[in-house]
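Troubleshooting log. The previous run stalled partway through. Resubmitting the same two chains, unchanged.
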Amino acid sequence: MIAPVTIGLIIFYFYPFFRVIRDSFHNIGAFDRDMGFVGLDNYIGMFKDKEMWQTLANTFEYVIIIVPLSLILAMIIAVLLNAKIKGVSVFRVIYFLPAITMSVAVSMVWRWIFNGDFGILNGILGSFGVPARQWLADKSTAMLCICVVAIWSNVGYYMIILLAGIQGISKGYYEAAEIDGATGLQKFFKITLPLLTPTIFYVVIMLIISTFQTFDGIYLMIGPKSQAIKYTQSVVMYFYRSAFDYSKKGYASAIAVLLFVIIMSLTVFQMKMQKKWVNYD
Amino acid sequence: MKRKLLATILCASMALATLAGCGGNTQTASTDAPAAETKTEEAAPAATEEAAPAEEEAPALEGEIHYAYWSDVLGPYLEECKANFEAANPGVTIVLEPTAWGEYWTKLETAATGGAVADVFQMNGPNIGKYASAGIIVPIDDLVANSDIDLNNYPQAMTDLYTVDGKLYGIAIDYDTIGLWYNKELFDAAGVEYPTEDWTWDDLVAAAEKLTDSSKGVYGMVAGYADQGGFYNTVPMSGGYILNDDKSASGFKDPATRAGIQCWVDLIQKGYSPSQASLTENADYIQFMSGKVAMLYAGDWFAATFVQDADFAKKIDCQYLPKMNGKRVSVIHGKANCISSATKYPEAAWAWVEYLAGKEANEILGKSGAAIPSYKGCADLYFAQFPDYNMGIFADEAENMSIPYPASKTSAEWGDIMWNELIAAYSGDVSVDEACDNIAEQMDALLASE
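Second attempt completed without errors. Output:
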């Protein structure tokens, strides 16, 4: 009964996992030709590679911008959508739609919105007298564009999760608070937020893991042949370019292993820290 | 406790098993789904063409040949060739597999890695070294020697380009050179005289200045990063070189080479060209076709793309590349068909390649207007498709002023290095000198390892 799942897991998860670790110690050239065991050369090369450091900086920047903003926005919208107003389910659908739209479609449309010469954004800004900018090709704005699109897509999904969390809080607490004369804001910070911490913990972990793995937006909106690529690429994007554009699959495997170690450490760290701030009752 | 032990043992043994097994590709997942069999149109061959001679002596050819290519402008020509070839060789089916240029090489390499690459596929200069050295394609010297093909019918530069380590891997099906395309309407609006045969680079810069009108968002000349369509031509004209004669070192330390690149960066910095950022977002020929730029260095093959827009087609013409230091050269390049070493039908694959290299196929190519056929004497058929344009310049450049396309075994790698370093120079982030220093360092190391 469990054979199909197990076989699938072995072929698509376990085997590639161990294979990538093994490949990171080899020099693999074009057409997957294994050119020999090179020990730690790939890792040492990564340490010396300026582009790798830039990429790590980019990725951390993405995480620092996208995770808090996604969380805060999702939280605000979840609280707002918890209201008992007419048509609230319509709004919930609208906010959730980006989460179920294919990331490829999302990226293509946003790419045209941001396009420097023919895009809508420049068109709208132009009517206010703002000069046109090459949003996606200029390294000072490209990263912002990726963040905007990522937050836009993230908010819907995490909002639903937070909403479910909020609705799981017993109404008794709020009634007690109202009797004591608590304002809306006090209710939020003293009741909702503390009781929501398990959900927030889950959301933060998922956000961090998925943001570290940003790829689609960068590949589709900026592309490997853009001059802004070095300043916007995430670790996964650099992994893709090393493996497929430069045919250095051994080096790419080392990058993948590094990413795994980073995400694993952060997740373990968060798991250990949850005792400090998450309330399970 | 026992479960944990069992799980740990299983994981560890899996790990050991993978580490022990070296190399060995696994999934031969075919990444290229064969294109749905295109309808065999009963394209009536022109009266002058006779059917390709059937292989009377050898047993009838059999097989299904997958043919990969990138340019969809070649579609009509290939379908007619397919129809003719299949009529003459009923046991063979040709499956045409076009892939967009952006993904062609990634897909080809992935397919070759997985052992599922097309039987015959198109190749170009930057990649021939990589595929030949890895043994992905077969040398065709013996096949050519035993056939009716006479290599004198094809440009020598092409035969040299596709010869690696003394072995020939493909015969060019077309050749192309670079010309200066310009938008007559924009020239008229700015009151500038059209480019002439005697133009120099300085004339071009002066015209670009007059043509640039920032209030209308119009620029004089496209000067974004382009190798074949850009500095591969201006570098030799400035007295520099990309590769030295025995391909042991690059020319990027030479000041003359740097001058041939600086001229482009200057155009951007003076504001006569859209910025590199703008050209990254919207390709150079697209900006040319939307009337945002008045001049463009582009190969002859763009004619087929330009005429797809009937209104735009009336506004343009082409001219010789402007001279620099009294010199005028254009890089010459062409596509070739190569046979995969993993093909199951080598005879049928060779027959298809032989047909495409033959006179009949070249004539079909010329008449389709997709590219200049490489077979001697067929080029005029192509030029006749574009009577409104000064297409003769491309043939003249090819015969009298061409330089071979710079390529070596590691072209694919140093092509990336050049792009990586120079794109920063074109964007104004680093100086041309600094970029060229970096290129020289890395490229010379690669060439030394060949």
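Takeaways: The radius of gyration of chain A is 23 Å. The mean pLDDT of chain A is 91.
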